[in-house]
What we know:
The chain has 141 residues and is an all-alpha fold.
Amino acid sequence: MKPDEINYLEYDTAVAAHNYVIENSGGAFGLRDEALLVSALQRPKNLAHYKPASDIFELAATLLTGIALNHPFFDGNKRCATMCALMFLSKNGVILKKMDAFDSCTFMISVVTHKVSDDDVANFLRNLAGKNFKHDCDNDA
């Protein structure tokens, strides 16, 4: 996928995702640091620009870790990071298998405690896509 073909997550969408997460699972509303959210949202664009061979899962992983580690919201950063990565993948034609809540929570704890890398996150997302994802090169004759 070329960088100009990627549907990036917009600022307002990320804020709406955070509000949805808080409304549905509890916690404190509010943006703690706008610049940290903007920075996290720019990470996939930067990766696509400087490493054009990155796949959609690597881009989603850098978005997820950016939000989770930047901690731009008062509460719900790990939940919002997960939601934003899933929305980003969906906007780009990837639908993941149902994610087990315990596995997701455990994995996100590993993300914020730096026990996994962006590559590990990309592989986690790639495995959740399983056979639901068809690579662009699969269409070539």
